[in-house]
Structures are given as structure tokens and as C-alpha cells.
What we know:
It is built from 13 helices and 30 strands. It has 3 domains: 83 residues, no CATH class; 187 residues, 3-Layer(aba) Sandwich (Rossmann fold); 230 residues, Jelly Rolls (Sandwich). The longest helix is centred in the N-terminal third of the chain and has 22 residues. The chain has a 6-stranded parallel sheet, sandwiched between helices. A 6-stranded antiparallel sheet has the order 19-20-21-29-24-27, with no helix packed on it. The protein is elongated. By secondary structure, the protein is of the alpha+beta class.
Amino acid sequence: MGVTGTPGANILAREADLIIGIGTRYSDFTTASKTAFQNPSVQFININVAEFDAAKHGGLQLVSDAKVALEELAAVVTGHQVSSDYEDRIAQFRTQWEKEVERLFHLHNGPLVSQSEVIGIVNSVCAPNDVVVCAAGSLPGDLHKLWRTRDPKSYHLEYGYSCMGYEIAGGLGVKMAAPDREVFVMVGDGSYLMMAQEIHTCLQEHCKLNIIVLDNHGFGSIGGLSQACGSNGFGTHYRYRDGGQLSGDFVPVDFAANASSMGASAVRARTVDEIRHALIRSRAAKQTTVTVIEVDESARVPGYESWWDVPVAEVSETKAVRDVRHDYEVKVKRERRRLIAGQYWQTHTQDQECVIVILGGTVVVEWGEGAHEIGRRKDVFSGYPSAVYLPCNMPFEIAASTNCEFADGRVPSAARLKPRLITPGDCREEIRGGGNATRQIVDIIRPDFPADKLMVCEVYTPSGNWSSYPPHKHDVHNPPGEVDLDEIYYYRVSHPHGYAFQRLYDAAHTRDETLTAVDGDLVLIKDGYHPVVAAHGYDVYYLNVLAGSARSMAASDDPRYAHLRRTGLERDPRVPLVHPELSLASS
């Protein structure tokens, strides 16, 4: 699961209410940069010999040998079984993934083969007890998704810090440890150039390896990341410098000749059939062989239902970078910070004003004026919020008194204002609309609050009801009727299967799209109309953070629907959904 995971695994992780982590460090890849687990009620049981890792994500810490812990857990859950619907869903995801692997193994890409096709050929040529070795670049992620392992000791990959140059030396070590197994080393051209000389050691020690060099004329993984960040793969291709730029022809590197010079048997293979026959001959050979394959850098294995936090330049003259930065700023807000009792988080507002909204749990906030304990609700559907407003240039610390979760909303500001606590009693409730457009608004930072730009509220929409309705917009500075505001909607839903629809369209009728928002989604709205409807059976919450040209919520309705504001329908009796009397946050 995670960045290198399958769609089914990532969807199930996103919805899960219990995660059992066995020996995991919950690294950036595994957790999709802390965006993988979006169920608001998710809990973690962490089995680990390292206390540091067992404590992550606010989990129940089982500092233990994995085998011993699992044996004891198995005895506790004897007789428990998930529902047949859940089993069927897992089976469906597995079937869908097998079809996707087959598709990637048989892309019929041309004129050059794809990396996924090479992986498929190697996998088919290998016997069940053969070992594949890899370490760096895009290959480990693709192998993680696609490789079909048939023996517990047949898959040897370095997933620590992408150690370029490890592959051939690591393959030599594997062969020395298991001389009766055929070892297939898969290595990209960039990593090969870093420590190819261990081919000579293989011959010296009579340790035969099957080495497959995938040549994409540069650093394919870093190049892909560079392109994803809008930078067009700068400096990641082996090209001649031309007019001050690395934009000339590819610098030719004869990998086959290089390997031959050290005594290996080396061949080049281009087509699927050539590659298959070369690898069959390589496996039957008595000495180290190197098969060089030129691959299509652009034919990549996609990511599935996941995201990786690769920061993008905040300031750039390049439009592509600015566009990607906009997308990054939206997605990074899905990262969730969970603190368990006793943990703390230190940070700084820098050149921004900030609001910390406690979504669930109790924390102590300290910014140099003494400690302040805030937060009593269990989750966003349990009561009114507690929050703290912090101006620019303010260092602060949040320490968890109980397991907790909070939102951190910011906007650029240079105003020298005072920090302020916001208690549930400071919040103001408003019931808007009528009939099935009734919703509850809990104001946290109103326009009359002594902040620079931030305005914040929580909105509760009952099952089947509409919100932000009639459709309105605030993208023109024309007070008092309308002001120009950007805003975010951060969604939480009363059940992990629940969802809302949000329609986004502009006054000029040049854009009209409808989004499906699930628990944990964040939607950035810079202009246009943006009504929301909660799916039947699921109450919907969103944290609304706004800032713009004035401290005002003034908006203009879509003229076609403005008359609906005056229907005079009675309020939905289900509203309000939450009350000031808070349920205590469980520890």
C-alpha cells in the first residue's frame, strides 16, 4: 500500500477503522505522506521492537517480537470474521489488480519496450526460487507493485534510502549466501554507472549473476519527479551541453562494451522476443551475463489512489511550476497530524497568521504566554470546537493531553496582532436555510474577530440536505454586496462510506464540474459558485477557511436560484446536529 501500492489496498486503507502495523516505520511511501488513513475514527495497533516506531500515529504500542505478538492476537480474535461483503470486495480488488498487472506486462509499447514489460519478462523467465535484486530509481516501486513472488527468499530489494550502486554488489552478496539460486540483478543505467566494477569481482569469485541494465539515458526516477514538479527533468538526462543548456543529443554510453571489458558476457536486446531469448540464454550460462535493454522513459507505471509529498517551488517564472504548486497546496492539506498523549509538535507561523482548530481530543498550546489547555470534543460530530488564533512571527507548541487531531489553517500576513484562545462558548451558532437546505453554521473566527484576513467556521449538513445554497460566489471585490475571497472546504463525513457532491461552476458558464468529496478531502475554491449536497444516510461536516480582499462574508447568489432564499420553508428538525454541551474526548 502507499505510494507504491495497489488501488485496492489504498482504498481499503483510506476507509479502514483499524490499522495493525507489523514492524513498519510508517515511512513516507507507506503512509502516502500521511494521507493514506482518512477514516476519522481510525485507530492503530503497532507491533514493533522499536518503541519509537510503535508510538507512531497515536497507536496502541505493542513493543514485542512480531511472531509472539501475532500468536497472542490470533488467540484473542479466534472466531472473528469480517463480513462476506468485505471479503467479496477484497477479492474484486485482487482480480482487478491481476488484470492491471497483465496489461502492464503486455503493453506492446513501441518502438522501445516499457520498463513494466521488462519486469514481466524477467518474472516469467525466473524459476520460483530464483532471486531478483534491485535498489534504486523507479524500479523498486514498479517491482513492489508488479513482481509476483513465489518463494519467501526470492525478492531482495533495498527500500531504505534508495542506495544507488547497491544492485550488483548486493547481487554478489546474495549469490554468495545462496550459490544454488540464480540471481537476477535489475539496475538502471544511472545506478549501473556508480558501481559497475563489481562485475569484475563476480568473475574473480566465480559468482555468476544475471544482470539486466535498463537504459533510459539518464536518471528516470528523478527525471519523472522533476517533470511532476513542473521542471521538465532538468539535468536528469545524459545530454551534451548545447548553448549553455543540457539540450543536445544523448551522450552515447556503450554498456555492453563496458561489461565485456570486465569479462562478462554482454548482449543488447531490443524487442520482447529478443529480451526473452537473451534472458533464457543468460540463465543457462555458467558465467556472469549482462543484458542491456533500451527502454521508453515515458512509459511509466502509474501511481494508484495515493500521493507523495514532493515539495514544489513556491515562486517560479515558469507557468508549469506555478500550476503544479497550486495542485500541491491543495493535496498537502490532506496530510493528517495525529498526536498521542504525551507527544508534542513545535512549529512557527513565520509570515502567516494561523488558526489551529481542534478536531478531536485535548491539547495544551503554548506560545510564550503560558500553557493553555483546549479541546474537549471526541470528534467533529461531538460538539463545538476549540481553537487558537496566532498572528505572524509566532513560535508555538502543541502538546497532546489525549490522543488528538487538529487542523492548521494559514494565510499570508504581516499584521502584528495578539494571539487569542477561542473556546466553545466563544463560538456563535447560526441555522441557515429551510427544508432540505437547512444547515448549521458554527462560527469560529467571524468578520468582526481581531484577525488580519482569516475567517473560519464549521458547517454541518444533515443527510440529504444542501449547503452553500442557493449557489453563491465571492470572487469580485464589490462591497458591500460581494468581496473577493478564496476558501477551502475540508470534509469529514459521519461514516467512511459516506460522501457529498460539490458543484463548481462560474458566472461566465465556461467551467462546470461536479466533485465527489469523501471523508478527509479538501477542496480549494478561488472563484465561482460552489453548492454542496450530502448523500442520503450520511451527515457531512466541512471546515470552512476563508481569506481575501476584505473581512466580510458578502456574496452574490446565482440569479437563477436567488429566489430560493425566500421560500419560507420550515427548518429541518434534525438541525442543529451538534450542541455546545461537549462529550469528553476519550484518551
